[in-house]
Amino acid sequence: MYLPEWLKSLPSKSLYFDVLLAMVITLSLSFIVFHAISNRLQQKTIDPAFDRIDELELESARGAMSAGGPEALRNYLASLNRVFGGSSHYLLDDRGIDQVSGENRASLLPPAPRSQWRTRANGHYIRAHRSADGQYWIVAVGVPERANIWTFLPYYFLVIGATLLLCWLASVGVVSPIRRIAASIAKGAWRR
């Protein structure tokens, strides 16, 4: 079997070790590819859905303000805060002035020329989306929920266990027959 020189020069403890190492490398590369695919899928499907939700919130906030003034806008933003579980929503003008309280919240806006962003700063997530005409921004600020480790821990153990089982099966399924063949060849050569 052909092997590159650099691969032949690596120390080999045993065939079991080599098969196990090959499986770990294969699984690691698979994880990297899975992560890249997952990020691409999020960029192409999930992020655009959130962008449309931001646009809907922005249009609804502008509609509430034009129909009922700052009080109607305050009520609409309070309903968004309630629905989204503790996040704070603001409708800002193009300079970053809050349309309800009059406070300057320009620090929540992205640097020009960006028209939207999702970021984390000072332990909070911030998402901002500018209207198509550039006059208003809808901004949400909240504390990201911390995932409970017990939520995901069983899945991690399951993946680690399945990986170890597959590596062991591959190692036994590949190495054991090779060793049996090598032993029978050695016995045949010995008898001659």
Please characterize this protein's 3D structure:
By secondary structure, the chain is of the alpha+beta class. It has two domains: 111 residues, Beta-Lactamase (2-Layer Sandwich), CATH 3.30.450; 37 residues. Helices cover 60% and strands 14% of the residues. Helix 2 packs antiparallel against helix 3. The chain is rod-shaped, with a radius of gyration of 29 Å. The model has no long low-confidence stretch (mean pLDDT 84).
- Let me know the average pLDDT: 84
Rg value: 29 Å
Give the N-to-C terminal Cα separation.
26 Å
Query: What's the shape?
Result: rod-shaped
Largest sheet: 4 strands, antiparallel
Q: In total, how many beta strands?
A: 4
Helical content (DSSP H or I, runs of 4+) = 55-70%
Order of helices and strands: HHEEEEH
**CATH topology category name of the largest domain:** Beta-Lactamase
Total tally of structural domains: 2
The CATH class name of the largest domain reads: Alpha Beta
What strand order characterises the main sheet? 1-4-3-2
Find the structural class using helix and strand composition. alpha+beta
What secondary-structure arrangement, pairings included, does this model have?
Layout (H helix, E strand, L loop, with lengths): L4 H4 L6 H69 L4 E6 L22 E6 L2 E7 L5 E7 L6 H43 L1
Antiparallel strand pairs: 1-4, 2-3, 3-4
List keywords for this structure.
alpha+beta; 4-stranded antiparallel sheet; Beta-Lactamase; rod-shaped
